[in-house]
């Protein structure tokens, strides 16, 4: 009798472990998919601003400001010039956001276990820390695709100032040339500066998002009850917190990734020292205006689409996703 009871308990425990594992896997898949959908929205909204930002960061001697840079692009390359690098940009952002939100969900669970706090009771700092940890993994996807994107965006300037490239090429050719010249690890040029940007950047991002949602939540309501306008404000604020906090690091990353086309670039700290010595401290903020203009609508689109698509999938998922 006792043995039968023990067997029943073991079977129940095994069933619970299986259910918990399936639930975690299902929620991770939802986070991954919602992150990818949000990344598409972010790319569509933000690409022209991003192109201008990269050109100002990497060739400040050619442009006096955002408006002049925009006019120059449209005059020499037409409106499509604002969208150079869209394919790798989409790959970069979709890859990054899908892995980011997948890792964010798992990192929140890890923080919950470490702190002994229920998942739905995690505070702003705890969620921001989970977002920062998630960025370690998303950077591994982002770095290669963003490297190709930045080179395509600055190809006109590279062709004008160097004999390295004499004709415009597409993302696949850029990728093949990179691997041929530097091997597979060549795709990870700028990874250190990507980590230096993304890890603190996503702490600021999720901190700004969570604190804004908290401030906008009326008494007696929860963050889940926020409407579209308040989510837009929260998402836009998150993006601005990210970029204002880590913009100089992004400038150095773009320099390393684009100008390595013309020869091997020094590391992160030597590049910082060279930029400050030859161009002044202000050069670390070249392109901040288009970046700020892009960050609010692009990140609002990212987070609003992520939240709504995730909620729809959770609401329409099998009972497994909503158990426990």
What would you say this structure looks like, in words?
- This protein is mostly helical and 324 residues long.
- It is 77% helix and 0% strand.
- It contains eleven helices and no strands.
- It has helices at 2-58, 66-77, 86-115, 124-153, 155-161, 171-182, 191-216, 228-259, 268-279, 288-315, 319-322.
- The radius of gyration is 22 Å and the shape is globular.
- Residues 9-19 and 320-324 have low confidence and may be disordered.
Quantity of strands, as a count: 0
Distance between the amino and carboxyl termini: 30 Å
Rg computed from alpha carbons, rounded to a whole number of angstroms:
22 Å
Tell me the structural class.
mainly alpha
Tell me the major beta sheet.
none
* Unreliable stretches: 9-19, 320-324
Compressed to H and E, one letter per element, the order equals HHHHHHHHHHH
Describe the oligomeric state of these chains in a short phrase.
Answer: single chain
**Approximately how much helix is present in the residues?**
over 70%
In round numbers, the mean pLDDT is 82
Number of helices: 11
What percentage of amino acids are in beta strands? under 5%
Shape: globular
What key phrases describe this protein's structure?
disordered C terminus, 324 residues, mainly alpha, globular
In short:
The protein is mostly helical.
Topology of helices and strands:
Layout (H helix, E strand, L loop, with lengths): L1 H57 L7 H12 L8 H30 L8 H30 L1 H7 L9 H12 L8 H26 L11 H32 L8 H12 L8 H28 L3 H4 L2
Helix pairs in contact: 1-2, 1-3, 1-10, 3-4, 4-7, 4-8, 7-8, 8-9, 8-10
């Amino acid at each position: 009798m006792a043995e039968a009871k023990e067997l029943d308990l073991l079977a129940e425990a095994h069933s619970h472990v299986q259910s918990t594992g399936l639930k975690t896997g299902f929620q991770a898949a939802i986070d991954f998919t919602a992150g990818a959908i949000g990344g598409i929205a972010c790319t569509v909204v933000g690409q022209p601003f991003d192109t201008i930002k990269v050109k100002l960061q990497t060739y400040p001697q050619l442009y006096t400001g955002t408006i002049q840079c925009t006019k120059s692009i449209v005059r020499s390359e037409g409106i499509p010039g604002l969208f150079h690098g869209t394919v790798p940009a989409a790959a970069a952002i979709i890859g990054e956001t899908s892995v980011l939100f997948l890792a964010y969900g798992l990192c929140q669970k890890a923080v919950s276990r470490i702190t002994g706090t229920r998942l739905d009771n995690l505070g702003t700092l705890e969620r921001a820390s989970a977002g920062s940890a998630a960025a370690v993994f998303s950077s591994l996807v982002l770095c290669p695709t963003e490297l190709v994107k930045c080179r395509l965006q600055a190809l006109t300037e590279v062709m004008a100032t160097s004999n390295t490239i004499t004709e415009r090429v597409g993302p696949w050719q850029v990728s093949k040339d990179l691997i041929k010249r530097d091997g597979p690890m060549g795709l990870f040029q700028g990874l250190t500066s990507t980590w230096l940007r993304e890890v603190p950047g996503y702490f600021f991002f999720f901190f700004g998002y969570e604190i804004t949602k908290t401030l906008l939540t009326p008494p007696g309501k929860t963050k889940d009850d926020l409407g579209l306008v308040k989510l837009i404000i929260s998402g836009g604020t998150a993006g601005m917190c990210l970029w204002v906090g880590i913009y100089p690091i992004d400038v150095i990353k773009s320099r390393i990734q684009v100008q390595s086309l013309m020869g091997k670039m020094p590391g992160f700290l030597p590049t910082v020292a060279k930029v400050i010595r030859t161009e002044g401290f202000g050069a670390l903020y070249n392109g901040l205006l288009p970046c700020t203009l892009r960050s609010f609508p692009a990140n609002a689109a990212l987070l609003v689409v992520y939240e709504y698509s995730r909620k729809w999938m959770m609401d329409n998922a099998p009972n497994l996703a909503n158990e426990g």
